[in-house]
Amino acid sequence: MTTKAELRKKLIAKRDALDEKEREKANALILESMRLLTQDVSSIGIYLSFGSEIDTILPITSWFYENKKIYVPRVEGNDLVWILLNDFKSLRKSDFGVMEPIDGTVVDINEIELMFVPLLGYDDDLHRIGYGKGFYDRALNVYKGRKIGLAYGISHVETIFPTSSDIPLDVIVTPHEIITKHR
Fold first, then answer.
1. What does the alpha-carbon distance between residue 173 and residue 170 come to, in Å, rounded to a whole number?
2. Is 26 in contact with 151 (CB distance < 8 Å)?
3. For the chain, what are the domain ranges?
4. Over the stretch 40-85, which tens digit does the pLDDT of each residue have?
5. Is the dihedral of CA 175, 31, 27, 11 positive or negative?
6. Roughly what angle, to the nearest 10 degrees, separates helices 20-38 and 57-65?
7. Of 115, 140, 145, 134, which Cα lies nearest the Cα of 47?
8. Residue 180 and residue 92: Cα distance in Å, rounded?
9. Element containing residue 33 per DSSP (H, E)
10. Do residues 180 and 171 lie in contact, with contact meaning Cβ atoms separated by under 8 Å?
């Protein structure tokens, strides 16, 4: 039986193995879907991508030009707080290697209309597997807005071995489809 830790390693290796051209093409296709999903909202929660994750910097930059409010997470203790992002200058690398705001306006997560979350993999029930610290599961447990995962096509798995603390998403965006719970 595969454990969650083994599944994480396998999914990271698959994602890291994508060549640059494949990754660029996938990111462009996902960006188009992200634009569709955000055209009628004014506030967006999103992670700052790193490594081989789906690129979020390009959509954030385009949303700045559309005057949307962009909120990004910062780790405080065992939780995430959401900070209004005004530019990319006031960021620092966290202990986890992820860029996060140094300071800024903290908002209640439920003031954010929709939330894009990182994931390593997802299953047919739209459960996500992340990096294993539970930050997003704790945040999403209280979030009432639309929860959207961004994934390469290679990220689908039969099961992520969900537990009661794993919060399913409402939507998964891949390069070739937008997957909802009601398909």
1. 10
2. no
3. 4-180
4. 999 999 999 998 999 999 999 999 999 999 999 999 998 999 999 9
5. negative
6. 40
7. 115
8. 34
9. helix 20-38
10. yes
**The domain 4-180: what is its CATH number?**
3.40.50.10420
pTM of the model: 0.92
At 172 the pLDDT is: 97
Q: What is the pLDDT of residue 58?
A: 94
Rg (alpha carbons) of the chain, rounded to whole number: 15
The continuous run of DSSP H or E covering 153 comes out as none
Give the 3-state secondary structure of residue 167.
coil
| Residue 90 and residue 103 in contact, taking contact as beta carbons nearer than 8 Å | yes
Angle at 51 between CA 60 and CA 132, to 5 degrees: 100
Structure tokens at 11: 């999914």
Cβ–Cβ under 8 Å, residues 181 and 168: yes
- Residue 46: Cβ-neighbour burial (10 angstroms; 0-12, 13-18, 19+): buried
Type of residue numbered 3: T
Q: Are 29 and 175 in contact (CB under 8 A)?
A: yes
DSSP 124: T
SS3 2: coil
